[in-house]
UniProtKB/TrEMBL annotation:
<feature type="transmembrane region" description="Helical">
    <location>
        <begin position="30"/>
        <end position="52"/>
    </location>
</feature>
<feature type="transmembrane region" description="Helical">
    <location>
        <begin position="167"/>
        <end position="189"/>
    </location>
</feature>
<keyword id="KW-0813">Transport</keyword>
<keyword id="KW-0762">Sugar transport</keyword>
<keyword id="KW-0472">Membrane</keyword>
<feature type="transmembrane region" description="Helical">
    <location>
        <begin position="274"/>
        <end position="293"/>
    </location>
</feature>
<keyword id="KW-1133">Transmembrane helix</keyword>
<protein>
    <submittedName>
        <fullName>Multiple sugar transport system permease protein</fullName>
    </submittedName>
</protein>
<keyword id="KW-0812">Transmembrane</keyword>
<keyword id="KW-1003">Cell membrane</keyword>
<feature type="transmembrane region" description="Helical">
    <location>
        <begin position="90"/>
        <end position="116"/>
    </location>
</feature>
<feature type="transmembrane region" description="Helical">
    <location>
        <begin position="218"/>
        <end position="239"/>
    </location>
</feature>
<feature type="transmembrane region" description="Helical">
    <location>
        <begin position="123"/>
        <end position="147"/>
    </location>
</feature>
<dbReference type="GO" id="GO:0005886">
    <property type="term" value="C:plasma membrane"/>
</dbReference>
<dbReference type="InterPro" id="IPR000515">
    <property type="entry name" value="MetI-like"/>
</dbReference>
<feature type="domain" description="ABC transmembrane type-1">
    <location>
        <begin position="91"/>
        <end position="293"/>
    </location>
</feature>
<comment type="similarity">
    <text>Belongs to the binding-protein-dependent transport system permease family.</text>
</comment>
């Protein structure tokens, strides 16, 4: 009986504490929640408006304007964008550019990161700063000399889409992505490799392992979490690129999907409903990658933040 009587007493004693805790809502936290809610709504407005526009017909918007209630909603624009713009062909172009660019970027960045993080040379810090500083250059600054250089570099036909030049070739676009993304990846991977104990490679060295074997069979397998996060980020960044695909390809047939959306815009007439539908179709693979690998995406935002 004593134990039965103690339980309600304990519940009664804890109830005021719980009520008191619920009442402790600080004004700063309320302001923060209001700010985040408003920011999220503002961020969602363009996306919701694009979905709404893509579901309306061109006749409806031309008669009532875009800021009006739709008389009917249809998926006709999605069908037209998929068939008229040839989106499957441009999706394949994006895959041809994105997959090799991601793999080469990770391989080259891991090699440089291994050099600057596992060996003590005087040029280590200079190399790391050089790669990181190169990543800070805006692409628009170097486009003129880069464009002229691409027109002067010859390539065999099997590597240049038949153009014989670096310009207007998948190889040229892949290389510029590798060059621009290697700086960030080298910085992140070098910081990650510094967290791996040196005793592992020293033990392998005593057992007779070469430098290449230490890199390939010891360091790279331990960097799988970093590779997964970087691969997710790189895939989204390179797939979403619009600038290089538009500038470094002469013809629209070889452009990636993001640059090919501009072909839906006519010279004298543009159907904004059709363009909105095409843009949303283009974003589907990015959303799918993010939803499937969101854990790696979030962890990638803090990679390299522990040790500099």
């Amino acid at each position: 009986m004593t134990a039965v009587a103690e339980v309600p007493a304990a519940a009664e004693s804890s109830r005021p504490v719980a009520v008191r805790r619920r009442k402790r809502v600080r004004p700063a936290r309320v302001v923060l929640h209001v700010f985040l809610t408003v920011t999220a709504l503002v961020w969602l407005v363009p996306l919701v408006w694009a979905v709404y526009t893509s579901l309306r017909t061109f006749a409806d918007t031309s008669q009532h304007g875009y800021f009006s209630l739709a008389t009917a909603l249809t998926f006709e624009n999605y069908e037209n964008a998929w068939e008229q713009a040839g989106l499957p062909h441009y999706f394949l172009n994006s895959v041809i550019i994105t997959v090799p660019a991601v793999l080469l970027t990770l391989l080259f960045s891991a090699s440089v990161a291994f050099f600057v993080s596992r060996f003590n040379f005087k040029v280590n810090l200079f190399l790391l700063m050089l790669f990181t500083a190169g990543n800070l250059l805006p692409p628009q600054v170097i486009i003129t000399p880069l464009f002229r250089m691409y027109l002067l570099i010859p390539l065999p036909d099997w590597l240049s889409n038949g153009s014989g030049l670096m310009y207007n070739s998948f190889f040229g676009v892949i290389m510029i992505h590798v060059a621009f993304q290697s700086g960030f990846c080298t910085f992140v991977l070098s910081n990650y490799m510094k967290t791996i104990p040196h005793e592992l490679t020293e033990a392998a060295l005593v057992d007779g392992a070469s430098v290449f074997r230490q890199f390939w069979q010891i360091i790279l397998p331990l960097c799988r979490p970093a590779f997964a996060a970087l691969a997710t980020l790189l895939t989204i960044w390179i797939y979403n690129d619009f600038f290089w695909g538009l500038v470094l390809f002469q013809t629209g047939a070889d452009r990636p999907i993001t640059s090919a959306i501009s072909s839906l815009q006519g010279q004298y007439f543009s159907n904004q409903n059709l363009i909105a539908a095409g843009a949303l179709l283009t974003a589907i693979p990015t959303l799918a990658i993010y939803l499937a690998l969101q854990r790696q995406f979030v962890s990638g935002l803090t990679l390299g933040a522990n040790k500099g």
